[in-house]
Amino acid sequence: MGDVKLNSSGGGSVTLTPPSTASNYTVTLPAATSTLIDTTSTQTLTNKTIASLVTTGTATFGGIVDTGSTGQVQFPATQNPSSNANTLDDYEEGTWTPFDNSGAGLTFSVAAGMYTKVGRLVVATFRVIFPTTTNSLTSSIGGLPFASASVGNQQMQGSAIRYSDCGTVFSLANLQGSSYFFPYTFGGAGLINSNFSGKYIDAAIIYQTS
Known about the structure:
Elements: E1 91-96, E2 99-100, E3 110-118, E4 121-129, E5 141-142, E6 157-164, E7 170-174, E8 180-185, E9 200-208
Antiparallel strand pairs: 1-3, 2-5, 3-4, 4-9, 5-8, 6-9, 7-8
């Protein structure tokens, strides 16, 4: 098979038929610095596998996008935020380290956290163990991986306590625009550090970031 070239302003098409016996054949596209298609009309590739596709514009898929055996969709390390409500513009997962934000200078004997961020929604799980303390400052834990969004009077967050042995029923309240939170009783009272002296908090906090 020799070279086949399309070089017509009127367009055209080439159909490649696989050989009757096992064999390799190659279609060589222009160099990476060249332009493959430069036209305003719609171009279609059917039943083709492209090992590495780079597009500087919008790629539109009319059917299911099958990621194949890799099963992965990669987002850039630095988010490129979109104002479109139907556009997913970020996915990230990692670890974070909770720390005492009360001003008491406490050092947790255990402080570990993980998070997953999908778009604006962040789910941050963590475990801390407080040191033995009689400190009376209001408890506050900092270090969330992203600051929460500032959205007027709405507090766009929630929490789930998996386990705590402090003896008091409480939830976690994040102030909008911040990366820290407070334990609050269901009656709205803040808990102090001595309430958690030597105690665990295993929990998750769910919130929206900007």
